[in-house]
Amino acid sequence: MEISRRYDGRAVRSRFEGELAGRYDVIVAGLGTAGAVAALAAARKGLKVLAVERLHGMGGVGTTGAVWDYYLGSRGGLSEELDQQALEWVSRGFTPSSGVNAEAKLFVMEQEASRLGIDIQYESSVTGVLMRKNQVCGIEWASAEGRFAAESNVVIDCTGDAEVCASAGCSLRIGRRMDGKAQPYSNVWIRLDQGRVNFRHTDSGYVDQTSAADLSRAILESASTHLRTNYEEHDRMVRIAPLLGLREGRFIEGEDNLTLEQLLNDRSIAQPLFFAYANVDIHCMDVAFESETMQKWLVACSMWGCKISVPIPLGALIPRGFQGLLAAGRCLAVDHDLAACVRMKRDMQKSGEAAAYAAYLSITRQAALRDIPYMELSALLKETGCLGRKIPAFRGLQIRNRSR
Questions:
Q1: 3 state SS of 115
Q2: Ordered DSSP codes for 244-301
Q3: Rounded CA separation 95/78 (Å)
Q4: Are 149 and 130 in contact (CB under 8 A)?
Q5: How far apart are CA 348 and CA 359, in angstroms?
Q6: CA–CA separation, 314 and 172 (whole Å)
Q7: 265-269-270 Cα angle (round to 5)
């Protein structure tokens, strides 16, 4: 067995000579928007789960990131149950807030994880990937206690920026073709608004979050934009969210790769896991540097507000050429243009749930991820509503009769 680690941006393999801390059915790297649901869904199917998270809580942008509301996305799936439980806890005494209260949702997820026996390692970062040729068979991680490694049948990369995939040596892309820039990030601040906890965010500019120096710059610079000389009693600052609102990062090269142009040309996508649903909600500050397809969509046709239903197949979660590895969350195999539509919290939660069921069938059927029976997978997805009816492809489009 080998260990693949990243040095100066390159994946380098060497013989693994360390000790294993355990063996699991599934390892989930990252407990954010996709990862929290992936870990819970996998454990509910009876799998032994290890979850490694660099922060100190589950839920990602919906909890520590303080984006509590939902902007579009398709409803259904395990996350609906979690949100409902969180709302019930608010009625028992949690501070009233907009959307789904972050502290209540974090509490619900951690209680469920504890009940299911998930092994959670907070404040831990993935430092390497265990490999047998092109088969991913575990991870290495570091915490305050030292460095550890564990094996698994399937690893689900929910780090947001495909950190596990990058360490394994998968082919990755980032940003737009013109200059490699991803969508602008947001910086969220929490405020007290008429006795309720609420949030606001800004478009704070571009950042390359794969660069520690540039990410640090963005954190320091953007936080100051929320400071004022005076605050009103009815609108007081509480704190700034510790997690930046990163809308886009690395994308995997998948077994299936989806593009906005492909979707607009009505090329069929068979066997979906779920349907993402939103407008092409791009926050770019310089449309002239976007693709020709995006320029036509946004400027020539004025279609920013048009909502699109996007079927996401299993191949968009499988890094090309690798086995035992799935990627869920914003690093799906989509292009920069389509990512602006396929990144909503509801849909990212669904991607984690779908990955968990795919891992479950791969393990129980002893089949490669790409070969698991779709009929069985779709049945699991339909049970929770993760896979539901397709929403009309161009909902929200209004055509006015301009004739006189």
A1: helix
A2: -B----EEE-BSS-B-HHHHHTT----SEEEEEEEE-----S-GGGS-HHHHIIIIIS
A3: 24
A4: yes
A5: 17
A6: 17
A7: 150
CA distance 58 to 30: 9
CA–CA gap between residue 104 and residue 81 (Å, rounded): 13
Greatest pairwise CA separation for the chain in angstroms: 79
Helices (H), 67-154: 78-90, 102-116
With a CB cutoff of 8 Å and minimum separation 6, the contacts of 332 are 251, 252, 254, 258, 312, 316, 317, 339, 342, 351
**DSSP 3-state of 107:** helix
CB 185 within 8 A of CB 285: no
Single-letter amino acid code for the residue at 376: E
What is the sign of the dihedral through the CA atoms of 301, 305, 248 and 310? Answer: negative
The model carries a pTM of 0.94
Backbone angles phi, psi at 391, to 5 degrees: -80, 140
Q: 387: which 2 tokens? A: 């896979």
203 burial type by CB count under 10 A (0-12 exposed, 13-18 middle, 19+ buried): middle
> For 44-179, where are the E strands, in sequence order?
49-52, 119-121, 125-132, 135-143, 146-157, 172-174
Please list the pLDDT of the chain residue by residue as tens digits (404 residues): 999 999 998 999 999 999 999 999 999 999 999 999 999 999 999 999 999 999 999 999 999 999 989 999 999 999 999 999 999 988 888 778 888 989 999 999 999 999 999 999 999 999 999 999 999 999 999 999 999 999 999 999 999 999 999 999 999 999 999 999 999 999 888 888 777 888 888 888 999 999 999 999 998 888 777 777 777 777 778 888 888 999 999 999 999 999 999 988 877 788 999 999 999 999 988 999 999 999 999 999 999 999 999 999 999 999 999 999 999 999 999 999 999 999 999 999 999 999 999 999 999 999 999 999 999 999 999 999 999 876 655 554 443 333 32
The b-or-e profile of 354-367 (16+ CB within 10 A means b, else e) is bbbbbbbbbbeeee
**Can you state the percent helix, strand and coil of the chain, rounding each to 5?**
30, 25, 40
